[in-house]
Specification:
Blueprint lengths: L1 H33 L12 H13 L28 H8 L6 E6 L5 E4 H6 L3 E8 L5 E10 H8 L7 E6 L11 E4 H4 L5 E6 L13 E3 L12 E7 L12 H4 L9
This protein binds ligand MTE and molybdenum atom (MO).
């Protein structure tokens, strides 16, 4: 009896050792071969996070689509997370229906630019009815209308060394906090990734992120930054905040929140 138990233990622990050793090997291999180390990899490659991110990127076709729904399936009720920005500039812009608001885009681009809401609305529009899934365990189906982030990236001309798109919102809370996030170029270029200015209709309600928000339906709720202020294209997020790729990542959430 004792023998069996200890043998099991031995098998278990050697399996664990093999798993973590090969995990290290796989992570290290993927790292050098494909440059697929997420910004929040932490100490010795954050093996779990690296494997999740790398295997998603290697195994799932890059442009596989999040499921889309019919209009009849749109949820009657859409929960809200987060207060509108307390930022004074935001309040003033909002009071004038965002007529003076502009979305700035710079970083590793050939033509740093800024676009008004009206300009964004004149670009080819895209819409999708997708499920918004929050890490807190709820979801709702809504239609999002906007311009594809890829279209905007083409307008400004992304340089080949770009690796991430960072989205910065107006700040909220006391003390002011920024719900900034970053995504890789695969998600930035994904056909369903929108800079959305409409929700279930032509406008985006303040509580859902007016004037525009990011909609990245293949990732969890918190990556879908509301109240956009600006976008930065970069090859590293090390110099932003704590260097892990997002405010929520600093709070312990995974940078890659693929669903
Ligand atoms: N600027 C900003 N963006 C944000 C948040 C926030 O508080 N501030 N909350 C996030 C979270 S956790 C979720 S689930 C969704 C919620 O979007 P909704 O309020 O439109 O349902 O927005 C995300 N984007
Ligand atoms: Mo969320």
């Amino acid at each position: 009896m004792g023998d069996i138990l200890s043998r099991r233990k031995l098998i278990k622990s050697s399996l664990a050792a093999v798993a973590s050793a090969s995990g290290l090997g796989v992570a290290g291999y993927l790292a050098s071969r494909y440059g697929l180390i997420p910004p929040d990899h932490g100490g010795i490659y954050g093996i779990g996070k690296t494997i999740t991110y790398a295997s998603q990127r290697l195994l799932i076709p890059q442009h596989s689509l999040a499921r889309e729904f019919n209009r009849t399936e749109i949820s009657k009720f859409a929960p809200v997370v987060g207060e509108p920005p307390t930022d004074e500039t935001y309040q003033q812009l909002s009071a004038k229906s965002f007529r003076d608001w502009r979305l700035k885009i710079d970083g590793l681009v050939t033509r740093p630019s800024s676009f008004s809401l009206e300009e964004l609305k004149r670009f080819p529009s895209r819409s999708q009815i997708t499920n918004h899934i929050c890490e807190q365990g709820w979801s709702f189906i809504a239609e999002w209308i906007g311009v594809s982030l890829s279209y905007i990236l083409d307008l400004v001309g992304v340089l080949p060394q770009a690796k991430y798109v960072v989205v910065l919102p107006y700040e909220n809370g006391d003390p002011p906090q920024s719900w900034w996030e970053s995504i890789d170029m695969v998600d930035a270029r994904h056909p369903q990734t929108l800079v959305a200015y409409g929700m279930n209709g032509p406008d985006l309600p303040i509580r859902h992120g007016a004037p525009v928000r990011l909609k990245v339906p293949r990732q969890m709720g918190y990556k879908n930054v509301k109240y956009l202020h600006s976008i930065i294209v970069t090859d590293t997020v090390k110099n932003i905040g704590k260097g892990v790729g997002g405010a929520n990542v600093e709070d312990g959430y995974s940078w890659f929140a693929g669903i």
